[in-house]
Design brief:
The protein contains five helices and three strands; from the N terminus they run αβααββαα. It has 135 residues and is mainly alpha-helical. The chain has a three-stranded antiparallel beta sheet. β2 and β3 form a beta hairpin.
Length: 135
Amino acid sequence: MQLLINPADELPIYRQIMRQITEAIAGGLLRSGAKLLSHRELSEQLVIAPLTVKKAYDELEALGFIETVRGRGTFVAAKLPLPNPGADLERLRQNARRLLAQAYLAGLTFDQVVELLQETHSQLTENHESQKENV
């Protein structure tokens, strides 16, 4: 899996790393037990400070998405965190409100937003679906 960092993005670099890893897990590109690059390897690949990668990994580990095994490396957690439907739903409502507000300010219609969501859904799940077909 190749991560892409955009220095001009409003998200800090460590959050960009976190977002891409969690999206890869959600989309099935990274499965439980998959080994991640070490802090040093990923920092060299992205040309960023190793502490930036460590911060992203530490936060992902605290959230339960990844786990580090001393001497072996960092892996996608065997057991991913259980969702909290109430809290997750409220957070999603807030994000939906922000998304719609930004879309409307950009001149998009509701149908265009739905189309954008469908495209994004396809991108997130296409790797997962193609992996199922290859099994």
